[in-house]
Each structure stands twice: as structure tokens, then as C-alpha cells.
Amino acid sequence: MPVSINAIDPISRSAFAAEVTGIDLREPVSAADVAAIEAGMARYAVLVFRDQPVDDEQQATFSRHFGPLEEATGDLRPAAERRIAMTLNDISNLDQDGRVMARDDRRRLFGLGNMLWHSDSSFKAAPARYSLLSARVIPGSGGNTEFADMRAAYDTLDDETRAVVADLVCEHSQIHSRGALGFTEFTEEELRQCAPVKQRLVRRHPVSGRKSLFLSAHIGAIDGMPVPEARMLIRDLTEHATQRDFVYAHVWRQHDLVMWDNRATMHRARRYDPSQVRDMRRTTVSDEVSTLEQVA
Question: Contact 175/226 with Cβ under 8 angstroms?
């Protein structure tokens, strides 16, 4: 059965977010299927695979078809406190023994930053290309993930704003995004790990050719601009980019796998009952080079 990719909302969002059928991610994937998925990503930016009860190795194997995987270094979980391999990000509220974290657990509080609009690994010199998130256990309600189309956000800027943002370079750091939530207690090693990196604010997709805004809650400064002015501009752009017309809200079912292109989207998790288990695992395909090395 060939892979089929169809828009989830063909009326309101015909070119953003689609569902993929005709594939079992637990089985070997053909070169033709990989090519079809990459074409779907370039067009829709978010792809939903339903009923995919993959294990960690199957998820990693599928993900590697699209490039090298990042190691999970952005969640402040030391190796000794991890319950899964470093090839997967533990996007859960569980400790290393599989128990729900206490509400004031430092790791849980740091993880609340995922509820801010962001792009994965924008705080790394080589940011993320694709992210693939697998729903292993979901809470009874809440915990949705929202995606914003940053191509549409750029397309609808007025000419004056496009001229302002065209060549801007921003500093991204988890220190800034977590500080916005009042999480400010970092060790010296964590401060070194979270040192700011620079990324272009406007980027061009290498496949589709479309321009997009590279926004994230991790942005704390813009080169050559006073910090208050820079943060006000980023706030205004984020409000524009996350208006409802540009957003797809994914309501999770168990064993969904959602794949998205960080070069064309922002996303955020939504609230849920913290006493209920939410076990999500993410593989992340690196974009390999900084946006500063890419032609805007």
C-alpha cells in the first residue's frame, strides 16, 4: 500500500498539517516512502502518523532516514538520571524510576519551558531540522501540542516589517526562556551548556524555497538593538505568528507519532493534570549547520 498524505483541514489549512497513511513505522521503510515523506514535510511542515506503537529503537531507526540524530542534551537530565537512551529526548513528567515527578521537582519545572512557543534546539549552533514525537502514554485530557506556520507568518508581514527583520541576527538561549518563567537557578556547568548562540531571524527553506520567521521563546537579544526594543519586537512578531489562523492544534491519541519541520514551524505543549502520566519521546534530526551559514 503506497504512502498517502492528505491535509487534515483542506478548507482552512490546505498547506499546513497533514495525515500520513499506508505505512507501518515498525517495518523497514523504502526509499520511495522516505522521499514521499520528505516531500510532504516540505509542503505541509507537520505530518501526523496514527496508530504507530513503535519502541525507542524503531523510532530512532525511522528518524535516521532523514539525517543524523541529536543527542538529548537540552533537558538538564544527567546521564545517570535518564530512563531512556541519549538518542531520544524524554518529554515526560516521569523520573528515572518511571514515577510521576513531584510538582516542585527541578527537572519538571525546567520542562515547563516546553509550554512556551519555541523551535527545537534553536539554542544550539546547529538547530533542529525535523522533530519526531511519539505518544507512549497520554493523560486523560489536555496536553495537546500546537504548531504555528512560520511561513504564513512571514508571508503576511507588511513590507515595512519585512525590511526591518530581513537581516537581523538573534541570540537564543534556554537561560532566557526559563528565566521568563522564573527558573533562574543554574549551576556553572549548566550556564556554560546554555551559552547563547546566534541564528538568523529570517530563513529560506532549502527545499520549498519559502521564507519563514525563525522565532522562539529562547530569543533574548538581537544584534545591534537595545534589549528592551529587541524583546518588544520578538513579542510583537510572536503574537503575529501565533494567531489562530496560522495554528494547528494536535489532540493526541496514544501511539500517534507527529513529525514537524523546525525550519518552518514553532510549537508548544499545553497544560494537563500533572498528577497523570504523560510519556512522550522525541527524536531530533539535526540541521547540521548554523542558520548563519545558510543564505537567508
Answer: no
Contact 251, 144 (CB under 8 A): yes
pLDDT in tens, 150-198: 999 999 999 999 999 999 999 999 999 999 999 998 989 888 888 999 9
Residues linked to residue 204 through DSSP beta bridges, in sequence order: 211
For the segment 28-81, what is each residue's pLDDT rounded down to a tens digit?
999 999 999 999 999 999 999 999 999 999 999 999 999 999 988 777 777 777
Q: Of 264, 266, 260, whose CA–CA distance to 283 is shortest?
A: 260
Q: Which residue ranges form the domains of the chain, and what is each CATH number?
A: 4-288 (3.60.130.10)
Calpha distance 167→221 (Å, rounded):
14
DSSP three-state, residue 198: strand
Q: Report d(CA 133, CA 125) in Å as an integer.
A: 22
Given a contact cutoff of 8 angstroms between Cβ atoms, the answer to whether 16 and 153 are in contact is: no
User: Which is nearest to 287 in space by CA: 171, 175, 200?
Assistant: 200
pLDDT at 77: 74
- Contact between 263 and 68 (Cβ < 8 Å): no
127: cell is 538547530
